[in-house]
Amino acid sequence: MIVHLIDGTYELFRHFYGLRRFGKDEDRPFGAVVGVLNTALQMIEDGATHLAVATDHVIESFRNALWSGYKTGGGIERALFAQFRPLEEALAAMGVVVWPMIELEADDALASAARIAAADARPQKVCIWTPDKDLAQCVRGDRVVQVDRKTGKIRDAKGVREKFGVDPIFIPDLLALVGDAADGYPGLPGIGRITAARLIARYGAIEDFPATVLGERRELALLFKTLATLRTDAELFEDVDELRWRGPTAAFPACAARLGDERLLGRSRKAPVSRAPPRLVP
Q: What is the pLDDT of residue 73?
């Protein structure tokens, strides 16, 4: 069994801007939603049996109270933002487990789900489908891996070290030092990725740095580390078999019609409800 954990917010963005880049018409009201559903169906057709999708039901989270510059939903286009809740409803109707996050972020849900799934001996592998660098902290050996759709790479712990220069557990320390523009915190001026990786290799976690290394900036670095550290305590499920896809629900015919793509219904009805191991292909 392979457990697939999907970053629904990223997938929605990916399909929205992909359609805009290659399409000539105006934004379709549910175009990105249909794209994400087709992606999930493709994974099921390729053999995925256990999968779930995490979404940012509300963009803001507890981190906004910690840092005023943390990301908000203010810059999201209206046509894209309007598809967030329809996506959650459509996934549930299609029979895919979906976690709409409010106080926590979708990334926290993925981190929590990876922890729960990895604690179960049955899954041979747990795959986190997102290119977001903060999810690299969840990688464990070659059992919990990150699948990057952008590059087509499957990144295990060795791959994380090759890309970032640090072990997965030190990704929050690295991001705290260099910052994360996508999440809205700047890191420490004058510390680039190479220097940060060198400091971590020498001293370990920021908490273990000698006081003279960061000086007065230590508390700021620790704040940024808090922002970068994903929560793993969300109680999303108890048994990995709760993530098994068992086909579309009775609500899906009306949902597919509302989305304007009834081909989804036929495709979902034909998709195998299989126990065969899925192919790990981005």
A: 86
CA distance 27 to 262: 19
Statement to judge: residues 53 and 170 lie in one domain: no
The boundaries of the domain holding residue 62 are 2-156+231-270
CA distance 79 to 151: 27
User: CA-CA distance, 250 to 167, in Å (whole number)?
Assistant: 45
- Domain membership flag for residue 281: no
- 121's tokens: 């001996």
Who's near 254: CB < 8 A, 6+ residues apart? none
Token digits of residue 141 = 């050996």
282 located within any domain? no
Report the phi/psi class of residue 95: left, alpha or beta, with left for phi > 0 and alpha for psi in -120 to 50.
left
Q: Give the mean model confidence (pLDDT) for residues 9-28.
A: 84
> What whole-number distance in Å separates Cα of residue 188 and Cα of residue 212?
15
Strand ranges in the chain using DSSP code E only, listed in sequence order: 2-7, 50-56, 97-101, 125-129, 144-148, 153-155
What does DSSP assign to residue 56? E
pLDDT band for position 24 (cuts 50, 70, 90): low
Tell me the whole-structure pTM to 2 decimals. 0.93
Describe the strand order of the beta sheet including 97-101 as a list of residue ranges: 97-101, 50-56, 2-7, 125-129, 144-148, 153-155
Q: What is the pLDDT of residue 22?
A: 76
Query: Cα dist. 4→100, 125, 203 in Å?
Result: 17, 9, 34
- Enter the tokens of residue 209: 């740095």
Please give the mean pLDDT across all residues of the chain. Answer: 93
Q: Are residues 55 and 172 in the same domain?
A: no
